[in-house]
Amino acid sequence: MTIRTVVWGENIHEQTNAVVRGIYPDGMHSTIAAALNAGDGIEATTATLQEPEHGLSVERLAGTDVLVWWGHKDHGAVADEVVERVARRVFEGMGLIVLHSGHFSKPFKRLMGTPCALKWREAGERERIWTVNPGHPIAAGLPESFVLENEEMYGEFFSVPEPLETVFISWFAGGEVFRSGLTWRRGAGNIFYFRPGHETYPTYQDANVQTVIRNAVKWAYNPMPAHIGVHDAPNVPVEQALEPITERGPKLHQSGEEGYK
Amino acid sequence: MTIRTVVWGENIHEQTNAVVRGIYPDGMHSTIAAALNAGDGIEATTATLQEPEHGLSVERLAGTDVLVWWGHKDHGAVADEVVERVARRVFEGMGLIVLHSGHFSKPFKRLMGTPCALKWREAGERERIWTVNPGHPIAAGLPESFVLENEEMYGEFFSVPEPLETVFISWFAGGEVFRSGLTWRRGAGNIFYFRPGHETYPTYQDANVQTVIRNAVKWAYNPMPAHIGVHDAPNVPVEQALEPITERGPKLHQSGEEGYK
Amino acid sequence: MTIRTVVWGENIHEQTNAVVRGIYPDGMHSTIAAALNAGDGIEATTATLQEPEHGLSVERLAGTDVLVWWGHKDHGAVADEVVERVARRVFEGMGLIVLHSGHFSKPFKRLMGTPCALKWREAGERERIWTVNPGHPIAAGLPESFVLENEEMYGEFFSVPEPLETVFISWFAGGEVFRSGLTWRRGAGNIFYFRPGHETYPTYQDANVQTVIRNAVKWAYNPMPAHIGVHDAPNVPVEQALEPITERGPKLHQSGEEGYK
Amino acid sequence: MTIRTVVWGENIHEQTNAVVRGIYPDGMHSTIAAALNAGDGIEATTATLQEPEHGLSVERLAGTDVLVWWGHKDHGAVADEVVERVARRVFEGMGLIVLHSGHFSKPFKRLMGTPCALKWREAGERERIWTVNPGHPIAAGLPESFVLENEEMYGEFFSVPEPLETVFISWFAGGEVFRSGLTWRRGAGNIFYFRPGHETYPTYQDANVQTVIRNAVKWAYNPMPAHIGVHDAPNVPVEQALEPITERGPKLHQSGEEGYK
User: Fold this and answer.
1) Which of A179, B144, C174, D118 sits a CA distance of 20 to 30 A from A88?
2) What is the C-alpha to C-alpha distance for residues B164 and A164, in angstroms, rounded to an integer?
3) Which residues form the ThuA-like domain (chains A, B, C, D) (predicted)?
4) Residue C69: C-alpha distances to residues A177, C213, D55, D69 (Å)
5) Residue A145, in any domain of the structure
6) What are A96's strand-pairing partners?
7) Does B174 touch chain C if contact means CB atoms closer than 8 Å?
8) Alpha-carbon Rg of chain A, whole angstroms?
């Protein structure tokens, strides 16, 4: 049984910026997908902003167990309909891994319900990533800390909801800290945010970074059937109550009527 | 120092349904506001759907410490601009208390990022509300459980994010349970959802229910100045880094340029 | 790869009480272990209070991935040394499933750090268990609710720490509710408490209950190597600091000295 | 109404180490208590290891709203009976603020149920403390980060339970990070751990540190009556069930008998 994973890439700077193209000639999404395919149990394909429906049709998402998301330059170009489609699949149990500048992507903001803002500085400074939850599956096989010699700084306050668990915290040479690995569950879907990955540095070629993303895909995978009932607000008729009760008092709704939404 | 509280009421069934008008001749919002004003430390006014900007202008919200929300019949009539305005004030530190059918209100769904769906049955059955967190300030002065003899049933699964804390759980005569009192923080704002309050029953005249809402307003109140920085994603120039660092490597952004949103 | 599971049973009422012996002639632990062995991926053995070191020697625990605990009549008879041994293995990554009256067991109280008290009534009343977290792996394959026709009632307030996630909530015919399925992580170890299982009823022969325990063992299993470093508070010598720093100011400790514990 | 606060100091290095005595001639506890008394709403007194019952008699604790704890050199000298007494009062609603090396104190380990271990280095290096939860009352009035020029380093993994909320994270010049401000609730009691405060540096004379501790005392204060019921596991007789039920099936306990503990 393999985890059907789609790596979504915005795929803009790879085409417009020589530095980025030099590091990721086939696109960042391809590098990430290749890293996922290198291990057991994951079958990763890619999708990009430029494809019809951004490569995320209803059918494609229905067959996706985990979606990995990287975007930066043009979050606004993602169609609202696709954003809502992604959110619905997360509620049904699709895992979602949001990378780096994806903190401002529409699907992440939609699912967090908060600004998802942060401080930043693009100076190629040293980032040291610490595991603060060594028993968490996303930390498997990692050293207690590892270094990315050149990264963009992200600093607190990162305005996301208090996570289920904090897995990684970053130290930056310029003096900041950042909660770099955070988990949430929304509906039946597991969500993980992972900080590193500025496009002008070869971050996704780093072995530790690849391990984290691979672990995250496995952690986020929910093998249960899609929980499609999550969208419904069903009326339970009084005659089907689990304990026998008698209807009492005034009512707004006729029998069998739908609720207000 | 008083907590400036606005009780927002949809104010539809009070005008169109004789039963509801009989129980709440001045509107549910007026009954709730009166209960809040009966205690110390809270100064409650009301706002309704029918007022310009639903009574929630920028100025009004800027002077609101805690907003209480009840809506049911026509959630869709609330303007998206007002929803976003409410969300922004929550991020800045305004408290939000969402009551009963407000689970499907636009502001609540916006802030939770989830479907907020549930099961329901309108049969006037007995609800017993249990405190499962007796040290929480919202439970102050309450018995370990109390009864609402006639209420609409809400049943799990309630598709909201795992709360910070669970304060109340309801037992229903027909066999269901429901997490009836849940807390979250979003940005600098505290949010509390409280289940009871179907409009065909005199729930908001119940002394225990009034105690809960009064406690919740006090708990949600954040006396700090509005955290207006929560909306920003500021660039930190390298020459202003807290620790001296030297800029290295390629860059996407010119000095002083804004980030992509 | 199988999950090496030990089902620990107090094994007293099975010998002293005819009703319990009639339901569980080979002991409750044997019934539970058989249910675990009936599925794939788990290899369950048993241990009891009466064995030397209660069947939980250092060697046995070192080879245990998940420990399931049922006790009731004589919690005090469990040796403190064994309790501490169990706690250490949990911190290192061993999973722990605590059943029913095990809420007052020494290992559970040791790991929770709270009274773990609750209300109770032994009247053979109906319990209905609701899933409030349908995407959680422990809820896999279960209906949205299921009934145990005869069970002991446990009621709130259940004085345990706020859990990582609430998975099940029980409804009782006599009017109470109870958080029946709760998860925590302690060190590298996953802990799950599951409420049902009074010894005078055939609860552990129920298919849904067996599914929950089987799911819980799989969820609690941490495949990483034992995190033995969790017990240490190592000094990091200044000359081994990750960033070069110079020692400054007065010191309490000589170089290489251990910290105070 | 003032918050009756006791600042507990181990009071050893102040007497045996000239550096510490030079900084805190009246003891660290006196400096902390003075800082608490300088603001409104708190009335702080002190207690030390050397006093009878360590200054924490049953009567004294019964009249204590919040206890602040600093210990380091001789955690083992604290009597187990006093530790249990402190834990019981926390369950009943007394707040507890644990400072710095108090991470290894008996009351903290008792209440957390985990090793509470960490890495450390005594090199007088720079610590920068970041607020990662600016809406939390404990962060009121603080800048987004502040510096302690000379502090002992504490590094992750800090083996405590996942907190309710993370309020502060520290950056260290030598390359480590640490979750420096964490909250938990245990029973009806609020607990806050705050990292800074090595005795060879004047940390408790720092205005920001004093603000944090003052905020923490106010946050931890639970004005409700002591929740003495938290220690009980009462039997609910069947004839007093909230919903009428009939006793069924076999029983272990005679009517009115206590449960097993």
Assistant:
1) A179
2) 9
3) 9-220
4) 41, 11, 39, 35
5) no
6) A67, A191
7) no
8) 21
Structure tokens at C216: 């819980």
C-alpha to C-alpha distance for B138 and B10, rounded to whole angstroms: 25
By the 8 A CB rule, do B204 and B59 touch?
Answer: no
Contacts of A229 in chain B (CB under 8 A): 157
Does A242 reach chain B within 8 Å, measured CB to CB? yes
Q: Is the separation of the CB atoms in B165 and D164 below 8 Å? A: yes
| The pair of three-digit structure tokens given for residue D19, joined into one six-digit string | 């550096």
How far apart CA D201 and CA D186 sit, in angstroms, is: 32
Cβ neighbours of C19 in D, within 8 Å: 250
**Token digits for A213?**
């993303």
Query: Does residue C212 fall inside a structural domain?
Result: yes
CATH number reported for the structural domain that contains residue C45 in this entry: 3.40.50.880
- What's the CA dihedral at C22, C27, C30, C35 to 10 degrees? 50
Asked if the structure places residue C236 within a domain, the reply is no
**Packed helices D28-37 and D207-220: angle between N→C axes, nearest 10 degrees:** 70
Angle between helix A28-37 and helix A207-220 axes, rounded to 10 deg:
70
Is A100's pLDDT higher than 80? Answer: yes
Rounded to a whole number of angstroms, the distance from the CA of B133 to the nearest CA of chain C is: 7
Q: What digits encode the pLDDT tens for the residues D152-188?
A: 999 999 999 999 999 999 999 999 999 999 999 999 9
Of A124, A233, A245, the CB nearest to B247: A124
Strands D95-99 and D66-70: parallel
Q: What gap in Å lies between CA C238 and CA D122, rounded to an integer?
A: 8
In a mutagenesis test of the B interface, which of D224, D230, D243, D245 is the best target, namely the one with the most B β-carbons within 10 Å? D224
C50 interfaces chain D, CB cutoff of 8 Å: no
Q: Which of A128, A137, A188 sits opposite C134 (nearest CB)?
A: A188
**Rounded-to-integer distance, Cα B33 and Cα B30, Å:** 5
d(CA D260, CA C19): 18
Interface of A with B in 206-225 (CB under 8 A): none
Contact B184, B161 (CB under 8 A): yes
The CA distance from A150 to D165, in Å, is 31
The three-class DSSP label of residue A77 is helix
Q: What is the pLDDT of residues B30-68, one digit of tens each?
A: 999 999 999 899 999 999 999 999 999 999 999 999 999
Q: Is A1 in a helix, a strand, or coil?
A: coil
Domain housing B75: 3-113+181-228
Kindly report, residue by residue over D8-23, the tens digit of the pLDDT: 999 999 999 999 999 9
Q: What is the pLDDT of residue C79?
A: 98
Name chain B contacts of C139, Cβ cutoff 8 Å: none
Domain presence at residue D242:
no
CA-closest candidate to residue A180, choices B65, B75, D96, D169: D169
Contact state of A135 with C164 under an 8 Å Cβ cutoff? no
Threshold 0.90, pTM exceeds: yes
Integer Cα distance of B83 and C177 in angstroms: 35
Task: Flag if C130 and B166 touch (Cβ within 8 Å).
Answer: no
How many whole angstroms separate alpha carbon C251 and alpha carbon D198? 10
Contact B48, B77 (CB under 8 A): no
d(CA B86, CA D103): 41
The residue-averaged pLDDT of A60-66 equals: 98
Length of chain C as a residue count? 261
- Give the residue from B39, B86, B97 showing the smallest Cα distance to B61: B86
Best residue of C145, C156, C172 to probe chain B, by most B CBs closer than 10 Å: C156
**DSSP 3-state of D1:** coil
Partners of residue C243 in chain A, C-beta under 8 Å: 173
Number of domains in chain B: 1
